[in-house]
Amino acid sequence: MSGTDELLDAVREAVSGVTRKWDRSYYMDCARRGVAPTEMYDAMAEQGLFALGVPEEVGGAGGGLTATAAVMEEMSRAGTPPMLFSLTSFARQAIIRHGTPQQIKEYVEPTLTARQTFSFAITEPEAGTNSFAMRTLARLQADGSYRLNGQKVFISGADQSTHILVVARTTPAIEVVNKGDGISLFVLPKDTPGVSMAPMNIDWKAPERQYSVWFDDVALPAESLLGQEGKGLRSMFDSLNAERVVIAAWTLGLGFRALEKAVEYARTRTPWGSPIGAYQAVSHPLAKAKAELEAARAMNHRAAQRFDSGEDAGDDANIAKYLASEASYAAIDAAIQTHGGSGFDEDTDIVTLYPMIRILRVAPLNNEMILNYIANHMLGLPRSY
Fold this sequence. Notes:
Helix content: 40-55%
Oligomer: single chain
Largest sheet: 4 strands, mixed
Shape: globular
Structural class: alpha+beta
């Protein structure tokens, strides 16, 4: 057995120790009541899951993005995708790779036990997927501090996190020659004066909600800047590439869960005497979903390994997110069709998986933009935008 296999087995065992008690029914109860699944996060921390993905030399448990993705897939497969774990795991990658030792100590080490968690603020109302056009601006002050003003939207878990990793401009877009210049990353406590938020009206069957977040003349100390001012593009993509892999693992877990429930139903449902799974009209969509999920999983594993080895994982991470979200969507569609009318009964817990799987084809980057990326960056085709 390889070291990777041993790691993944250990992850599965640790996750099962969490989900045996804090299971899908607990998760959905939190979602209905609109409360954070704090007991689940506490149990994850006790099992050492929040420490995975952080190098051992800074106090973490190691395992890299490979281990992080494994946690996300297994938790999602149990029907309990941990949003704050996901956000924290990829947000802190920028700090680990580009932060000072003091920033790592202050912002990363407390995440190992989930005492601190992160939300990630990049999307804006006008810019949308064109992050280079963001307007949120951090102005350098005479004393070396910054003043932050602007708005972010679709910020998942903003109310439940303790800190926010904010991507902002330190030079307006109209003043830079290269669109990637003038972008900086800042770390700030959620309760910093001048930060306000309001929930968006989105129901995706999860305990966490999306928020509009406003920054009104927020005072940021110089040490809140991550890396060099205006040179945050690499830091941003270190988090975004990790995000793609973690999100792919998330949607894969949900897709496998939907498929497993459909297969069990197809084995036992016998309205004409034999199981409906014997009919190719039922079995072939499920078989196709299985093939596509496994292929996406293999690509996601490769992307994680490349990220962990320090290679440029952007191509693989984007492909993995695309394949995983499309495969999972096909799986939930086949699962609903297999269940027929009962698939729309929330007590069956099939249609309840649909909103989250569907959203992950749009977020954190819509699949059309990923195809644009593949066409432009990998195939060398001209841009249309």
